[in-house]
Design a protein that fits this description.
Elements (H helix, E strand, L loop, with lengths): L13 E7 L6 H10 L3 E7 L5 H8 L2 E5 L9 H16 L4 E5 L3 E3 L3 H12 L5 E5 L1 E2 L6 H15 L2 H7 L11 E5 H7 L1 H4 L6 H12 L3 E5 L4 E3 L5 H16 L2 H21 L4 H22 L9 H21 L2 E3 L2 E3 L10
Parallel strand pairs: 1-2, 1-4, 2-3, 6-9, 7-10
Antiparallel strand pairs: 4-8, 5-10, 6-8, 11-12
């Protein structure tokens, strides 16, 4: 994957769009660095009760406030992003829009890195997404998230697609997605995927079907995020999302089974010989370590790769149970009428 760095003369205007619901403890860390780098920032305050709008405004953002209940058929984040795009269409002259989660922390090179990326690749690629550095939570929390990074980076040829122009990643990362504004307005992807919980995966697949290029880049040097603080938060957060990765109940069972097989298959080698047991385990562990080095995440969870993937299997089955029981909950909202097949409206 490309790792863009600031370059002299790259001054493309980017408007940063941040959906926020009860993010008073995070917004200062995301808005102030962007404003310090001269960027335009719009925050959508999604019916917060903790002073989110005031903190965002004090940090220098333009704030769009919402006090209306969530309309039927919409997820909270999709509505927020759609409203942000409408606001940017009315008030911003920037040719590029970057959607950021409220818990990211941009570094001093972040805006310049995106401007350089747009200057170099923006004529060919209208959508960019990227990976930040994921800061570890407390205790064993990284063990519950390690499977996600491994699944994405060890199993997807993001760099190869970008370098060759062949194939399609069919992926966006909702933490950070940069659109050419005219392409966003042509498709209005958050409205098109308005009921999805894992909207970034759905949007990536949508643009893959439309054959709109997406490039995935490495931004671990320029931005960081702490997704979760405690292992239970991680388990709940990924239980919210994982069902839509597989796309169906059958797909969830198959994917969970596949992770369980990967976690335990190396044991079968010991029934043949010791070397046949240790060699695949070693290769398995090395793949995890390479991913951790690339993503700048803690190395130690990758020493327990079988445990990571068993956690993945449990998380996916838990997500399936939540979906069937109507218990999918996030940001104080319960989504009880989600389709069993997220590929269908």
């Amino acid at each position: 994957m490309r790792r863009p760095k600031p370059k002299a003369g790259a001054t493309e205007a980017i408007c940063f769009l941040i959906p926020a619901r009860n993010e008073v403890h995070n917004l200062d860390r995301v808005v102030r660095p962007l404003r310090a780098q001269g960027a335009e920032v719009i925050v959508f305050d999604d019916d917060s009760s903790d002073g989110t709008a005031e903190i965002a405004a004090a940090a220098g953002a333009n704030v769009v406030q919402n006090r209306t209940p969530l309309e039927a058929g919409w997820s909270g984040k999709n509505r927020a992003c759609h409203q942000l795009a409408l606001a940017a269409s009315e008030s911003s002259s920037a040719d590029w829009w970057c959607f950021l989660d409220a818990d990211v922390e941009p570094g001093p090179e972040f805006v310049g890195s995106l401007q350089a990326l747009v200057a170099e690749r923006g004529q060919k690629v209208p959508i960019f997404t990227g990976f930040p550095t994921i800061l570890p939570g407390r205790g064993i929390e990284p063990l519950f998230l390690a499977w996600v990074g491994w699944s994405l980076l060890a199993e997807n040829p993001f760099g190869l697609v970008a370098r060759t122009g062949k194939g399609h990643n069919m992926f966006t990362n909702g933490q950070l997605t940069l659109y050419r504004a005219d392409v966003y307005r042509e498709h209005w992807p958050n409205e098109a995927m308005k009921g999805r919980i894992l909207e970034d995966v759905a949007i990536g697949r949508y643009f893959g079907k439309k054959k709109v290029p997406i490039e995935v880049v490495n931004l671990t040097h320029a931005i960081k995020v702490r997704m979760y603080d405690h292992w239970r938060e991680t388990l709940d957060g990924m239980s919210k999302n994982s069902y839509e990765i597989a796309g169906s109940a059958v797909g969830s069972v198959l994917l969970a089974g596949w992770f369980a097989v990967l976690a335990l298959a190396w044991v079968a080698g010991f029934f043949l010989s010791a070397s046949l047991g240790w060699l695949p385990l070693l290769l398995f562990t090395l793949s995890g370590l390479f991913v951790a080095l690339a993503a700048r995440t803690p190395l130690w969870p990758m020493l327990f790769m079988p445990v990571n993937l068993l956690i993945a299997s449990v998380t996916i089955i838990r997500s399936l149970m939540w979906r069937k029981q109507g218990k999918t909950t996030w940001k104080g909202r319960v989504y009880s009428n989600l389709p069993s097949d997220p590929e269908k409206p």
